[in-house]
Write a structure and sequence with these properties.
By secondary structure, the chain is mostly helical. It has a single domain, classed as Methane Monooxygenase Hydroxylase, Chain G, domain 1 (Up-down Bundle), CATH 1.20.58. 67% of the residues lie in helices and 0% in strands. It has four helices and no strands. It is globular, with a radius of gyration of 15 Å. Mean pLDDT is 82; it is low at 77-85.
Length: 86
């Protein structure tokens, strides 16, 4: 938990996105603590602010976009690369 908090406080957008992403890995565990939920909310809030600023949308819209992308699964937002022939 300290490592995730350090990532959130680092200001590094990639580190913050990792915290948001990693929460989904543990989403199947029903015993999420209050502090774990607070960490996720803090990371999502900071990530939403960054996305909103770049895309010129509201923070609420950005949060919805992030959660929708995460719901699609891993690498949903990353275009596939063409395969190189040997």
């Amino acid at each position: 938990m300290k490592r995730r908090l350090a990532k959130i406080n680092s200001g590094d957008i990639v580190a913050i996105a990792e915290v948001v992403r990693d929460r989904l890995r543990f989403d199947t565990q029903p015993d999420e603590s209050y502090s774990e939920r607070q960490l996720y909310e803090a990371a999502l809030d900071r990530l939403s602010r960054e996305v909103a600023a770049v895309q010129r949308i509201t923070e609420t819209e950005a949060g919805k976009e992030i959660e929708a992308a995460l719901a699609k699964g891993p690498r949903a937002a990353v275009p596939s690369r063409p395969r190189m022939r040997p």
